[in-house]
């Protein structure tokens, strides 16, 4: 006499099979999640490494080459930097004039060259009050200042604007030209923080005219803050360049002030997911 399985035995077997399937599905699902998480972390690591590599390449090729402003009647230093943002206001700066002012973000001081040029570092609030007393061709309003932000390294950005904050601008060498285009090997570069994205801007010409549009490239997202510091010849760190007057400087003559370069640049990235990353970049002399 043949004897089959009872209903209870079948239910127990089905229950055990279901438990095994659930455990197997959970293991497979967790493995897929871990794989995707690993891919995301690898992509993030690659993005951070690429952004830092671009920063290092740019600053290690910093060259003492000033540029003309958008109107072509004054000069801008080869390196401009301030944590509060950088903007260009007023008349000429450099060897050609004595009334120009370069506004850089957070504190007020002055650096005078032998030829009478004056470079001042002002806060955004002091810049608003001084614009009425400066030349009529200067910044008449924050809107006119912002409209000049895209020309020849003259950046007119203030903290909190929708277009972001331009933190540093400089001239670098080594601009690759595989197509043999008629252009210099030097390049005007700027870095901007806008809506949590670190952007790199460069201009097609060094001494660009008014209305020249920079080429923007997103380097890194999920960025909370970016800070640049510059080491002077006296081994002191400053968060503004050209340095403020209370930092000792070697005596320079004429437009050599516009050609001043730090001996090192410290880059601090504060990321939403990875915290703080600090890199010190030596600037070859």
How does this model look, in words?
The chain is α+β, with helices and mostly antiparallel strands. The protein has one domain: GSPII I/J protein-like (Pili subunits), CATH 3.10.610. Helices cover 24% and strands 27% of the residues. It is built from 3 helices and 15 strands. The chain has helices at 7-60, 124-130, 142-147; strands at 67-68, 75-76, 79-81, 86-89, 101-104, 109-112, 118-121, 165-172, 187-194, 197-202, 215-220, 223-231, 237-238, 264-271, 275-282. The strands form 5 sheets. Strands 3-8-9-10-11 form a 5-stranded antiparallel beta sheet, covered by helices on one side. A 4-stranded antiparallel beta sheet has the order 13-12-14-15, covered by helices on one side. β1 (67-68) and β2 (75-76) form a beta hairpin. It is elongated and about 105 Å long. The relative contact order is 0.16.
Q: Identify the CATH architecture.
A: Roll
Q: What letter string, H or E per element, gives the SSE order? A: HEEEEEEEHHEEEEEEEE
- Estimate the global geometry from the Cα principal axes: elongated
Number of domains: 1
Poorly predicted ranges:
88-162, 246-254
CATH topology: Pili subunits
Could you tell me the number of beta strands? 15
Compute the CA-based radius of gyration: 27 Å
Strand order of the largest sheet: 3-8-9-10-11
**Chain-averaged pLDDT:** 72
Residue fraction in strands:
25-35%
Helix content: 10-25%
Number of continuous helical runs: 3
The CATH superfamily appears as GSPII I/J protein-like
The end-to-end span amounts to: 100 Å
């Amino acid at each position: 006499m043949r004897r089959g399985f009872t209903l209870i035995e079948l239910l127990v077997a089905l229950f055990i099979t279901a438990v095994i399937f659930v455990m197997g599905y959970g293991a497979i699902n967790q493995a897929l999640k871990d794989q995707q998480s690993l891919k995301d972390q690898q992509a993030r690591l690659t993005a951070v490494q690429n952004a830092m590599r671009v920063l290092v390449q740019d600053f290690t090729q910093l060259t003492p080459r000033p540029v003309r402003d958008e109107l072509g009647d004054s000069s801008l230093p080869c390196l401009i930097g301030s944590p509060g943002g950088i903007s260009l206001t007023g008349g000429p700066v450099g060897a050609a004039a004595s009334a120009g002012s370069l506004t850089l973000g957070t504190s007020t001081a002055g650096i005078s060259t032998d030829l009478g040029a004056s470079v001042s570092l002002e806060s955004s609030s002091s810049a608003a009050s001084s614009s009425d007393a400066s030349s009529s061709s200067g910044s008449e309003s924050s809107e006119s200042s912002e409209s000049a932000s895209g020309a020849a390294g003259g950046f007119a950005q203030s903290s909190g604007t929708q277009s972001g904050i331009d933190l540093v601008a400089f001239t670098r060498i080594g601009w690759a030209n595989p197509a043999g285009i008629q252009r210099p090997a030097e390049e005007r570069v700027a870095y901007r923080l806008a809506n949590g994205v670190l952007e790199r801007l460069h201009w097609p010409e060094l001494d660009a005219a008014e209305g020249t549009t920079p080429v923007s490239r997103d380097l890194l997202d999920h960025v909370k803050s970016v800070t640049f510091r510059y080491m002077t010849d006296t081994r002191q760190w400053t968060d503004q360049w050209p340095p403020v007057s209370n930092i000792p400087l070697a005596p320079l003559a004429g437009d050599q002030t516009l050609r001043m370069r730090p001996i090192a640049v410290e880059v601090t990235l504060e990321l939403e997911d990875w915290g703080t990353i600090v890199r010190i970049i030596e600037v070859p002399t």
